[in-house]
Amino acid sequence: MKFLSLLSALLLGFFAATAEGQSLVRVSYGNDFMSVGSGARALGMGSAHTAFAGDVTAAYWNPAGLVRLQGLEAAYMHSERFGGIVGYDYGAVAMPLPGSDGTLAISFFRQGVDNIKNTLNAWDRERNRPRENVNDFITSFSAADLAVMISYGTPVNERLSWGASVKVLNSSIGPFANAWGYSLDLGAQYRTGDYLIGVNLMDITTMMKFWSVDANELRALETEFGDEIPVGENEVILPTIKIGAARFFSFGDFSLIAAADTDLRFENRRTYYINVGGMSIEPHIGLEAGYIDTVFLRFGLTDFSTNRSGRINTSPTLGAGLRLGAFDFDYGFSSFAGAASDLGFTHRLSLRFSLDRLGSAS
Fold this sequence. Notes:
- The chain has 362 residues and is mainly beta.
- It is built from 4 helices and 20 strands.
- It has helices spanning 2-19, 40-44, 58-61, 219-223; strands at 24-26, 73-81, 86-96, 103-118, 123-124, 129-130, 139-155, 160-173, 177-192, 195-202, 207-213, 234-237, 240-251, 254-265, 274-276, 279-291, 295-306, 312-324, 327-334, 346-354.
- The strands form 2 sheets. It has a 14-stranded antiparallel beta barrel with strand order 2-3-4-7-8-9-10-13-14-16-17-18-19-20. A two-stranded antiparallel sheet has the order 5-6.
- A hairpin with a 2-residue loop joins β18 and β19.
- The protein is elongated, with a radius of gyration of 22 Å.
- The protein starts with a helix and ends in an 8-residue tail after the last strand.
């Protein structure tokens, strides 16, 4: 944990120096791309994962769950949203530290829209029409969010564990604007018998993002279209508290996990049906049924909201998994019903490798 503390202190000093003399603006949804999460298993269960996450993906859901790893694990996930327009990729590796009870993980996240056409230089203002050979003046760029997370989990005793994650984010809009940000997560898990309770304090230090705009790249906005060149602002994103509970059931060759999470956000969101002042309460419910620890089916509920008539809407999720030796193949599907379905389907595919199961696979 000393390593995470040192890294966090260095980042704090760097960004504090960057922010000196600059104002910060409180925003909502400024870190929303990170709410996608990690692993197709979680999507199939409605993102109810805080209490029982115990593999490499726990670095995101609750770093305290990393202590349950028995050896090196690696994972990769690809997801597409909004009819394939937005791509999301996640990768992570984790391993118990030799000579220590702790487990270290490194995770990578990217969400982006690629191949966006830049037509700023394709307009001839004097002729009030596109330039001749217009394709020669059209370029492409990406709008993307990236994040790197370094996580550490360690047990307190046989029932209680805790962990922390340091996050560094980068947001870019092609060559036009760029932002860097950082924050810290703290999590804990407690298990008694077949019951688990978890809490993850995400962005507990608040997420701070510092934007810069390249005015030269946007000069055509002013010269060709008469618009003002935007100025970057520095953002503050308030913490999110994830609280979850889960229970394991066993029926011979069959198993069942029932889980429920609640996200408490303090950004004055009004899209969810439970609000207490500026705090929104966002529930997640999930079930996973397994057979001989090999085949899994999943169901969940998420995105609870209300319409103008006060009717409660929710988006169901479905998922499936297959375990073959050291490998887990998972699929998640959502947004086929409820208000979120208007934005198109979401598909996730993920692969997880566990080194400690490699020997038993032969």
